[in-house]
Structure formats: C-alpha cells, structure tokens
Fold this sequence. Notes:
Blueprint: H1 2-9, E1 12-21, E2 24-25, E3 33-34, E4 40-48, E5 53-64, E6 69-73, E7 80-82, H2 90-94, E8 101-104, E9 113-123, E10 131-133, E11 139-144, E12 149-160, E13 163-165, H3 169-182, E14 187-196, H4 208-226, E15 234-240, E16 252-255, E17 265-269, H5 286-297, E18 335-338, E19 349-351, E20 357-358, E21 366-367, H6 370-383, E22 405-408, E23 425-428, E24 452-460, E25 465-474, E26 492-496, E27 502-507, E28 509-512, E29 523-531, E30 538-543, E31 546-552, E32 559-560, E33 564-565, H7 567-575, E34 606-609, E35 612-613, E36 619-625, E37 633-639, E38 643-646, E39 656-664, E40 669-673, E41 677-678
Parallel strand pairs: 1-10, 3-11, 12-14, 12-15, 15-17, 20-21
Antiparallel strand pairs: 1-4, 2-18, 4-8, 5-6, 5-7, 5-9, 9-11, 12-13, 14-23, 16-17, 16-22, 18-19, 24-25, 24-29, 26-27, 26-30, 28-29, 30-31, 32-35, 33-34, 34-38, 36-37, 36-39, 39-40, 39-41
Amino acid sequence: MLAQVAAAAGPRVEVQHIEITQGIQDHRNSVGLIAGKRTFVRIFVDYAAPATASGVRGTLELRRQAGAARSVDSIGGLTAVLDPAQNGKLDVKRRVADRSLVFELPADWTVPGDLSLSLSSVKASDGAILDCGKCDLKENLKFGQASPVRIELLGMRYVRNAKTHVPRDIDYRSIVSWIQRAYPASEFEFHTRVVDWNAPSVFDTGTEACGEANAAITAIRKLDVANGKNALFHYYGVVYDGSSLANFMRGCASIPADPDPSAVGSGPAGTATSVLFPWDKGPSYAGWYAGHELGHTFGRHHPNSGCGDWDRTGDPQWPAQMPKNKLGTSDHPYVGFDRGDPSIQAPISVLAWDVGADLMTYCDSVWPSAHNYVEICNRTSAENKTFCPLSAQTSGAGPGAVAALSVSGPGGPITMVGRMAPPIVRTAETGTPAPAAAPSSADLPANVSGPVLSVTGRINLDRETGAISSVNRFQQSVETTKPAAGGSETPLIKSFDSQGRLLAQRPATVLLDTDTSPDSPRTGVVSGEVPYAGDIARLELVFKDKTLAVRSSSPERPAITPPTLEPTALINLLRNNFNTIQGGPFNVGPQTTAPAAPNGGDKGPLVYQWQAQGPPDLKYTVQISTNGGKEWNTVAVETQQHSIAIDPSWIQGATTLDVRVRASDGIHETVATSKQLDLGAKIPLQ
C-alpha cells in the first residue's frame, strides 16, 4: 500500500520506530535515561519510492508536560539513507548509524523529569518536504539523576633501556572520552598525575607486573586519602607501551565484594597494531582497556564468554537469556550507540547486538552490555548512597556479592617480542557540574582510632612467599576492606620492639590475582595495618605461622632538609611564561607524544631536591599540594632518589605549590615540607 501511494503522490515516509539511546538500547527502549547525559534519538522510517534516497533530514518536536515546546533538527553530519528494500526490516536498519534520522537532545531538555517527542517533518536532500505517515507517533521519556563517576588516573612513569616512558596525551584523552561515552553517568571527575614507578625489568604475560603496579597504586591511594583526598575516587594506573610489545603490560584490577572505591586497577596504553587489538582503529586503545579494568573496581566480573576471559566464579548476575559473548539476541536486540568524539578521531558508530560484546569480556569490539551498564550504575549509586535511576527499568540485582578477587585484564593471546592532578577536573555533560563531594566520615573506617602503620605488599598464598613494598604512618586508619580474623588463609601484620616483644598483630586483606589458567598460583596485593608506636623496631608479614617478609627500623631516626626548588628549573619555568599557569578544559598530564628524558627534556620541569641523614637505605615518599596543604597528592612512593621532577602541566591552573617529602628508615618517618612556591609571583630573572 505504501508503494502504491508513492507511485500516485510521490515519495513518502512512514514512522516505523523511535529509539532513545545514551549508549545501549533495545527496540523497546527498556534501558532508562540518565539526566544530563548526552541523549540521541534514532527515528526509523519506511520509504515509499522507486529508488534509494540519501541526504534525508528531519525535524523533531519536543514537549514538556507543562506545555513548553522546542524543535530540533537532525544531526548535520549524519544524514539518513532511505532504502525501500529495507522497509519493515527494523533489525537491519538499527545496525547502521545512517539508516535512521538521528537527533541529539539539547542539554536543557535532559534534566530530571518527563517529556514527549515526535517527528514533525522530513526533508529530501533538495529541501523538499516529504509526506509523512504516523508522524504523530509520540515517545514519552523520563530522566533520572545518577551518581557521579570519579576517577584518578595515574601515569606510571618507568625507565626501560635508558628511556623514560610516560602515557601520551592521547592516552589520557582516550580514557576520559571513552568513560564519558560508555559509562552510566553524566557527571565525571577526572584527576591525572604522573607518578614514579620502579617497574619490573620485564613485563610478564600474566598479572605479576600489573600486580606490582596495583600494590604501588594501593599505597598511593592510602597516602592520598589519609591526607585529604576524596575517598570516593577510583584509582587506575596507565602504563604506556612505548610502541613496543616488549613494554606491553597486561592489566588487572581488584573486584570488591561490596561497594568500595579503594579497589584499584592498572592497564596498558598505546596504539593498536596488526598483532595487538587489530580491530581497534583509534589512536589509543587505552580508553576501552581502562573501561574494562575500572569495571572490575565497580564490582563487575568476567562473564567467561569463551573469548579468553576467565573468572573463578564468572558473573553470578549475568542474565540467563543473554549470550556472554554478544550484546544481545534477536529477541533481546540491544544495540550499542557510540556518540563518538572528533577530538580523538572516534566517529559516531553503532554496534549491532551480534557484533559488539560486553566490555568485561576479552572479545573484540567491546561496549557495555545493558546488564553491566545498569550494574555499574547500581554500584556507583551504592558508593554514593543514592539510587540508580536505571534499576527500575531493567534486570534486577541478581544473587548476592561474591568474595574479593583480582582479575586479568582484556587482551587475549598476543605475540610478545623478546621477553596532576589538581586542579580538580570535573566534566558534566550538561555543562553545569554538580558540587564536588567532600570526603564523608561514613566513607572512612570508624572502628580504628589513633595513628597506624599502614603496610602494603605482595603475597603468593600457594608458594607462601611475600614482600612488603611500602610502610606509612597515618593519623587514622584508611582501610575499608576488613579481613576476617583467624582464617587459615588470612595473613597477619605483626609489630615488635627492639627486644623482640610482640606489640600488636592484625589480620591483613588479600586481593587475589586471577589468571586465565585455573592452576596458576594465587597471588595478590596484601594490605593491612597495626597501631603505631614509637618503639616499633620490626614489622613482619606472616602467613600460616611463616614469616614471609620483614621491615626493620634504624636506631638512628632519619633527618631531612626541606625540599628546595632547583634554581635553573624556576628560571626556565618563568621564561616559559608560566608565572600564572593557565588551565584548560581538563588537565590530562604531560603533553608527551614519545618517551621523554627522565627530567622532561626541554619541557622545563620543576626539580625539587633534598638532603638526608640516617641509614644508607633511606626511602622517600613525595607528595605535592596546590591548595595550601589541605590535600596532598602522592607522586612517588619509597623512592631512593633525592629529587623529584614535576612537569608544569601537572599543576596546570594552580597558583601555589607545596612539596612534602617523607623520609623513612623502613618504619619510622621524618617529614619535611618546602617553602610554598607562588606560581603567580613576578620574580625577576637573573
């Protein structure tokens, strides 16, 4: 009938389906909508005409219940192609971005509340208005408020073959962009900084290297939170591969059983090659890889899809009717819609239900499934003690929580060759960020009082070996995961005085690594604490009555001079017009495009130096503050160097800088702080 009408009256369209998507959606619009998140409308029409038409555009009419109305034109760079041969074939058209009229809702029409929309007109490429059937078909929308996603990106600076490797600008930007496009939130806070990391000399194909990175990141996070950092941030370490497979570090991250932002992760960054993620055509694979590892920190498991991802439990909440290696089925045709980002060469794209796979698999072309999109929203809401607006529209929560694990990141088999942060970076998609959430006393443990010694390290439960990688004194506990005392698999942290008397012992938490092989030894990050006392002379990591690692103090307490700015660095800083550093839309760390020299080459870093007295094996933890000491961000943990190089981009937008060094003899610390540097002062050059 539509073709007969067209023959008599010219080309005609008829509305077949209206789809509203923010990233993942089915043909019933069953996935709810988040207020403030960029929202797209795909209107599918049948076309009665003798030939295919391209360059077709449309106009959308929006209405609120209160009566306000607005017209919106379809996206200019994505005009529709209408093919009469595809009439009635909704599944075929949903697979391609340009087989529908695509609109983006204005930001002020995505605030919490209800609205309706309908197609008001359709125009051919020459501007002629096409006759439209069922254009009065309306779709009702409801937006709900979701919790923010807060992420601390740590660029892990390491030296390999006399070259210093640090993530590129495009790696940071790819992570920020991918998380914003794919994750169920409209408000995001991203901090970045570069930290010095004493990396293994070789990156293994399992999880040892990323496990060591995670131990360092865990220590950094505890130091930050103990010194004013918002405890709701998820920490993720970025390891640049230096354009070499030999420097590719497989990722891993811990999975907390309950909502717990202290779970950390790390993973690689670089550009895909013919043997490394050949399906990824973008300038950096860091984005989706970080999305996978951070998904673990939000409680998401591998579904055991058959693509190489393996988990001891799998995902106990995975919907029974959904395949584990696809986004959907013909009966549940969830389609991914990636809005793209021209700034990182990411085009608008569609992932059909049988082409894309969930981000927690090791399959190609990953994107959040509807299941994990909702579950990440549930977890972020639980961390913030709010309600996820998506929960009512889609699948339930499923079975209860499972034990804490750490899992290997995506990637599958590859051919191995050889063998700052401040100022706060907040991005709200509405353009109006919500106020930053201050650390709540409810987010910090309340059952431990007084100063503690916080211990972080690595442990192999099967081989009964371990190491203590860092020890720091805090005024109160920052541990959020409390192990059950007395279990046979529970390590202990013990403290002794110089006479060998036991002063205290406390159980420690182990976050296990999971490799793809079920018979791999159980290794992981160990974290714990004991009450601090001035007479502690020795710390022990004990497992099954066996001492795995020891830390001893020196009879002579360390002494340290305040860190001072190397004069040449200050002169270079001022010569480069950094008297007042200007902030950009967000701070993503050094603008490096290739491995840099240890001191930043000609980029003019600020180099702080200090002197110390004490035992020869003193180690130094370095922190910086750009708000007068209200919050300290860690840039090095237990380094033996007597200097730190701070790239100006780390402090972009700041007006002051303080540097604090904590000198440790292994247990006890002496702290020295620099004279505050006024970045706006006009200092005459010599």
